[in-house]
Amino acid sequence: MVHLMHKMVGEVIVKRVQAAKLFSISADETTDKAHAVNLAIGVRYVHEGVAEERVLSIVDLAKRDGDFVSRVVLNQLETWGLSHNDLLSQTHDGASVMSGKKKGVQAHISSTLGREIPYIHCFAHQLHLVVVWAMKECVEVGAFFETMRALTNFLKLSSARKVYQGGQLPRLLEHRWSGHHDTVAGFIKFQADIKSALEELRDSSHTDTSSKTLAAGLLHTALTPKNVFVATVLEKVFAILDPLNHTLQSPKLHLEGALHIISTTESRLRSLLEAGCSSWLPGTPKPKKMRLVHGDQSTSLGDVEQDGERRELTEIFHAIVEAVIAEMNERFSERNVKLLACLAFMKPGPDFLDADKLEPLTTLAARFFPPNTSSSKLDQEISVAKGAWEDKNPVGSEYTFQDAAKFFLGPLYSVAFPRVTILFKMTMTFGSSSADLERGFSTLTRILSSSRLSMTQTRKEDLVLLSVHSDITNGLDMEEFVNRFAEKARRLKLTVT
Length: 497
Hints:
With 497 residues, the protein is an alpha/beta fold. A hairpin with a 5-residue loop joins β1 (23-31) and β2 (37-47). It has three domains: 2-121 and 450-479, Nucleotidyltransferase, domain 5, CATH 3.30.420.40; 126-334, no CATH class; 338-429, no CATH class. It has helices at 2-20, 66-79, 96-99, 105-113, 123-137, 139-154, 158-161, 177-189, 191-203, 209-222, 225-248, 255-275, 301-331, 338-341, 359-365, 375-392, 401-408, 413-416, 418-429, 435-447, 457-468, 470-473, 478-487, and strands at 23-31, 37-47, 50-60, 87-92, 119-121, 291-294, 297-300.
């Protein structure tokens, strides 16, 4: 019964993909609690004017090389009846098995199909790499997170739990940048409770020697002005990156929108850098009143030390923010590729629907256009379509890509401008993230409890996909389901009355 329901859900997805007439794929793998390697394959397409991402299959992966994985992906598309001719692009993470230009999955898929299938490195994965590598660039940040690991482990000890009144510090997750954010936020929120607990453990006669030593050491390292300042800077940087992270998780996000919010995020980081940190530098303890005498002038030694500390903290601030900006420029280098750069001209603006600037996109779109589409016919249609848009939408007003897409995907203009409609569908179909597959893996983790480790791969796939596509599952025609279930061969004859 469960397998039949999964099949019916899959058929609904396939019908939508076939109706869209073009789609993109994504693939990712994970090892579950039963030590089985699962490959999730997703599709992205436009349904009723809205981009949808769906997990199509979760299969057992016997080998992890690019050639084998690519064949598994293409075989699954064939199994579900999806034509390779309708495949537009592919989105995977940056692992060499997936992204390799010669032996990666993306290369093998293009080679097998005999044409270039543009590959987009998952933006959500790139954002994680931005944070991880930028943090490694700054010695003080590395020291901060090492201290946080030690502090988190210490607060789990029974002696610490008895006196610590704050909330639990989130564990630092190496594979998710959000883990860094949660750790920083927790440290800042519970800073007073942490200090109180460490001081009590250090000073109490009832504390064992080992805990006393650890508490004293953490007081000396975790709660220094420098460490607290690093946490403050990281919190401000992560607050800017967080909206981008949430946006990249949305299955409805299109590539042009992703590129736009990445650019906006960079601008906010540069604004933070330009504003500087002088207004929120921490105060420093007043030193002893010693003075350095130079001729007729004298300078407080305390002023010298204070200026030196503020200068050091300012340098740390610049190092952190500049490292993040540099990593974003490097990691999101796809924006420099002509095909993706031209997507900006699908958004209303001075160069909206400029045929010359859209050439990389129209070249790729040629296989999806109606037969006998000449370049002159295409240019003419784009020109007329632009005029139709301007007639209906006053110049000077602000319009988004979604506004234009809704206009041209509507029943009237999609018939009048079929090629322009395809360009909008393509822009919406390009994937920017494989986050939807991650949600499938999260569901798999919940389903595969310790008592279900012997579950078959088919059963796992059935349950996961019925759950992640609950909107389709709940809308299935149950009369059709019962009839199809009754038709299945079985020992006991099932009669529907």
